[in-house]
Amino acid sequence: MLNIKELLDKVKASPYREIVIRAPHTGKVEFAGLKQGDMVRGPGGEYMEKPGTLLANLTREKNKKPIPAPEKGIIEAVHLEHEGKFVEAGEPLVTIKHYLTRKEVIELILQEALYLFRAPERAKYYFVPEVDQKLKVSGKRSVKVHDGMEILIVSRMKRETPLAYSGPEGIVYSVYFGRGENIDEGEPLIGICPEDQLTVIQDVVARIQSEWEEEE
Q1: Over its length of 216 residues, how does the chain's per-residue pLDDT go in tens digits?
Q2: Which residue among 135, 157, 203, 206 is least crowded, i.e. fewest CB within 10 A of its CB?
Q3: Cα angle value 25/30/35 (rounded, 5°)
Q4: Domain 4-99 belongs to what topology?
C-alpha cells in the first residue's frame, strides 16, 4: 500500500533540487559576477522568450555564448577557479539550489506513486488510434490498460511497430511524451494508477495544491 504521508514528509524534509550548470562546449569562461546566496530567475515571458539570469559567457573562436539560469533559485556555488580559462564540455560552472514548485512536487509524488511504463528504446511513440481518440474525447483517466494490451506504436527509422503494455492493470493517469517527440530508452511513457488507489492519489494532489507554498 502506498504510504503518501511518508512520501510527503520526504519531500518536505528536502524541498530543493540541485541544478548543476555545465559548459555546453569547450571555451573560455567569463562569469557574470554572481556569488553564493544570490537569487537567479529562470526564463520568463508568455512564450519563455526572455532568458533567465546570465550566469556566465563561454567564448569559442571569438563567438560568445551566454549561459542563462534554466530555473529560479539561489546560487550555491560558482567555480571561480575557471574564470578566464578554457574548459572542456561538461565542466561544472555553477550550482543552483532550486526550491521545488507545486507542480514539481506533484510530479515527484506521482513518479513514486504510479507504475511507470518505460520506453524500451529511443524512438517516437504514439497511442494506437482507438486509444488516441478516447484520450482526446474523454481524457486520460478514461483509458484502462491491462498486461499485454497493445496501446502504443513505436516509430523508429521509418518503421512502425505496435508496443504491448506490460505491468499491473489500471488507468492511464499521466502521459510523459508528446507527439513527434523522441523519447530516450528507459524514460517513462505513461504512469498507471491502480483503480483502488485513484482516490488516494487525487487526495494527495489536492492536498499539495492547497498546502505547498511556493517561494516568491
Answers
A1: 566 677 778 788 888 899 999 999 999 999 999 999 999 999 998 888 999 999 999 999 999 999 999 999 999 999 999 999 999 999 999 999 999 988 888 888 888 889 999 999 999 999 999 999 999 998 888 899 999 999 999 998 889 999 999 999 999 999 999 888 999 999 999 999 998 888 888 888 888 888 787 665
A2: 157
A3: 115
A4: OB fold (Dihydrolipoamide Acetyltransferase, E2P) (2.40.50)
Cβ neighbour number for residue 209 with a 10 Å cutoff = 12
Q: Angle formed by the axes of helices 4-13 and 198-211, to 10°?
A: 30
Instruction: Show the cell assigned to 82.
Output: 575557471
CATH classification of 103-211, choosing from 1.10.3720.10, 3.40.50.150, 1.10.15.40, 2.40.50.100?
2.40.50.100
- List, by residue range, all CATH 2.40.50.100 domains of the chain: 4-99, 103-211
Residue closest to 211 by CA, chosen among 38, 15, 1: 15
